[in-house]
Each structure stands twice: as C-alpha cells, then as structure tokens.
Design goal:
The protein is an alpha+beta fold and about 190 residues long. The chain is built from 8 helices and 6 strands, in the order αβββααββαααβαα. It has one domain. A 4-stranded antiparallel sheet has the order 3-2-1-6. Strands 4-5 form a two-stranded antiparallel sheet.
C-alpha cells in the first residue's frame, strides 16, 4: 500500500512539472473594478501564476494591499518589502507618519480615481465628479479595446489589472493628457 502511494505521488509530481514546464510560482498585486463581497467599487487582490497560467487569487483588504505594496509589511507578492510605488514611479502613494515617526496610515490618491475608468458616474456616491467611461456601467467598445491592448484586460467586469499593468494604470490615471485621450476614444 505504501509503495502504491509513493508511486502515485511520484507520477503526480512528474505530471505537474511537465505540465507547467518547471516554471516557478509568481505572485502579483492586482486590482479589479469589480464590486465584491465587501461592496466597494475596487477589489484588491494578490494573484498567483505559474508560467502564463493563473492558479489563484487571494482577495485582501485595501489596508493590507497598501502596506504590502508600500513595503511596510512583507508578503508573497513583495517578500523583500520594496516600495513598489516608488519603483514604478507612481506619485501620490505613500505611508503617513505620526509626529513621533510611527506609521499611522497611507495616502493612495490614484486609487480614488480608478472607478472612473469603468463608470460614467460613481455607482454608490452620486455626489462624486463624473467618471471617464462613455457608458454608465462599463467602458465603451473603443475604451474596452484600449484597456485590453494596453493593460491586458479582457473583461473589466471580471478581470484584474495585474502587476506592471496595474502600476502603469496608476500612473496613467494621474495624467490629464491620458484622461482626455481615454474619455475621447471612439466607440
């Protein structure tokens, strides 16, 4: 019985290694403009891939996402605690410190603008300024095509901005020229 179990484990290991081509598991920060169980407009996550295949998604709270990405806490997507916003030249994302020098929060202005990529008006707060989408609940066909070609998003209703594409988007949503270009994309 023990011999059979060992053989099964060996075959499974060989099969998985050949299936994934010895590729290493990698984890990335991701953001979806998908209203999740927490009823917020943005869903924060860490996604895992082996090669080109996504193998898992861990939904996390905004606070954890920010502390991980700012390098304050380590995680599988940032084990070296690097400030990824600094690395990718994202302005307006930083830790906040008390007068005694202790971390007591974070500032993440570009995340406050992300909903505008998907919505024409905020889905929960009608007092917010208008969004950049040409349609009320999702980008127009031209905007969706642009999001796919530029950031790898197949469907904004279900997919995440992942890794470097996410950081590129965070830079872009702070650029007035990009905002105007995105608003005016043809249908």
């Amino acid at each position: 019985m023990m011999f059979k179990l060992k053989m099964i484990l060996i075959f499974l290991t060989i099969g998985l290694n050949s299936h994934f081509g010895h590729a290493q598991r990698q984890s990335f920060f991701a953001v979806g403009l998908v209203t999740g169980a927490n009823s917020t407009v943005i869903t924060y996550a860490i996604v895992s891939k082996i090669g080109d295949r996504y193998i898992g998604t861990q939904i996390i709270e905004e606070q954890y996402f920010m502390y991980y990405a700012l390098g304050y806490w380590p995680c599988k997507a940032n084990p070296d605690k690097e400030n990824l916003f600094r690395k990718f030249s994202i302005p307006n994302c930083r830790l906040l410190y008390s007068n005694s020098g202790k971390v007591n929060g974070y500032y993440n202005q570009p995340f406050q603008e992300l909903w505008k990529v998907r919505y024409k008006s905020h889905p929960q707060d009608k007092n917010k300024p208008p969004g950049w989408s040409q349609s009320y609940y999702q980008p127009s066909a031209g905007q969706a095509r642009y999001l796919h070609e530029t950031y790898g998003i197949l469907n904004i209703n279900t997919h995440y901005f992942v890794g470097e594409h996410l950081f590129q988007l965070l830079r872009d949503v702070q650029n007035p020229d990009w905002i105007e270009m995105y608003r005016s994309l043809p249908d």
